[in-house]
Fold each of these.
Amino acid sequence: MSPTIGDVIETRLDFITREIHSTSFDETCRVVAKPVYGTSPGAHADGVLRWPIGLSGDGWSATWWSDQPVSGRIETTGYLCATSGARWPDSPVPIRGTVRRAHVVAPEDGGDDLAMTGVLVDLDLDDVSPPEMDFRAGSVGETGADIWVMDTSDPVLLHIDTNRVPPAVTEYLLPMTIESPGDANRFVHADGDGCWISSRHDIFRCDRSDDGAIAVERRCIEGGAVVVDRGTVFVLGRTGAAAHLDRRYGIVRVEPATHPVRELDDDGRLIPVEDPATLARVRSVQLAQRARRPAPGQWWSQAGNRLVLASPDMTSVSVDLSVRERGQVEWVQTDPFDDPRILEVVPMLSADSIREATETT
């Protein structure tokens, strides 16, 4: 569907340059170029290598495949083209603008017929309404009347009390990293005392007190697919080999995990599980969770600032996420040099100097 005048569009952009056929809407731009570090180049049809570069212009950012490594302020000629999705977690952010003009562009005589048919849109990047959503649900966990919702990108966690009418929403700003939007970044596992938050990088614990405050602690600096059973966290690895698209090496083979199931202990260590009964139980819990809550959109959905949750009895609860209170967060941090495993590899003198430098910054 073609955009109409006044529509607000949000999209990612590619910057296209052509050495042979220029277009009537090419522009010469002064931009700041930043390489997408650690990403292998791609080979063009003519065999020329091209490296992905992030470009920042006047109110816009885009990905550009350059035939040579560049960085810093440069001048280049081409045009912007809408693209879907992010190729890498650090891809340029989407732009947002109001449509001022839109018209169909037909192939030019002698031009490149493969790329020049489409809709040319003029966007006003300054006069644009604010986004409808300031929170984008990425994962939802529930236990009884308590529902926990994690943002898809920002370190923002919501608690929804469905015993209240209307449901009461509390927002918690967590001491976590900001992740790339659109990825399956974090997953919420709710229980009676709060929730676990897992990702492929780490595992956090959030304990909620009677006054509504939460204590947040990172329990492990490893992550993966997580199952919580009977209050215990299990990290599940691959049981077979698989092909993986790696930004540095392309398509690579990934071997199965040495220990397919590991248990998180009280000291933050992942202990291999060898007991056959436990292994079978954890795998069955994983399958049951997938069957009960198959995927986002099948039991919860978000439209604007409204989250709709469906229950197994086919009833639903609609929650207005724009009306929420800010909750108190306690960041539980342990001194790494209180960990004997750290002191095994760091001399005590070095530990004291590192601790002192950390406390003064």
Amino acid sequence: MSMPYETYRMTLKAFEMGISLDQYYALMHQRGIFDVSYHESFLAKMFQSDVLY
């Protein structure tokens, strides 16, 4: 799995601040870096690995 470091850090920071999945998807779409299938898979792996909780 790969993604730009900036996007990775933004993702971690957003969830640390309590963002919901719907809000996260809207943010990715707004920033023009939204790919539904990639981010769904990515987030699932992040939750499974206890990186996000």
Amino acid sequence: MVITRRWLFVLGLAALIVMPGCEGLLGDGGGAPRRTLDTARGGYTIAVDGYAEVYHEQYAQQQMASYAAQSGLTGFWVNTRGDKSYVCFGRYGSADDPAIERDMQRLRAAADAGRIQTRMMTVLPYEVTGGGAAEVYHMDRAHPETIYTLLISVYDDRYSGDPRVAAEREAAAWRAQDQEAYYYHSGHESAVLIGAYYHGAFVQKRDAMNRVSNQMHPVIVRLRQELGVVQMKRNGEPMFDEAGGVVESELIRVPGR
């Protein structure tokens, strides 16, 4: 068998998990309780594949999309840690969360049925801060020349759960459908965005009075219709204005650009 950098990475990861004193599935090796983390900042996840090549993040993204398409499961995401990227499934508050075993059974069933071929199935801690989990989908990761994006959903502090986690999960779900989705956190609100557009996002229209207005490019209009995101959502519910009219998703400037 040819040992590639990918396999060396997987073997090294396995060694890290079983070494006494290393933080991982086995805790600190001395029977100490496992950490319970806020999943908005970090937590635990199931790593199913890993890459350490030069383009590790791109490879992991491609593999994540393949897993999602072949398995029919939603919950895959990419966790990039420095020069390594993991294809992961799920986010959990503690390493002994009962949902972990349930999701592992779902992944094993997909693997046994031949729908996916995982290289590992290991519980790992992750952190969002410092360029870790879910940062792959942050709007800051879009092409630096991007000017506009389509705002389709917002979560705020009235949401029953954590708005940050909800926005990240929705962006990941869109990514699993091969859509270029992002999230963005600002104060008490978290947004879900689709697409990264340049100057051509708007086209000029003239009315009968020769007045000029900017309208969404027909391609983006069609995209909204095909995806069913013409109407904006807040906290998972369709939005209406004070008169009962539909609040539509809109092209906005990329935050900070």
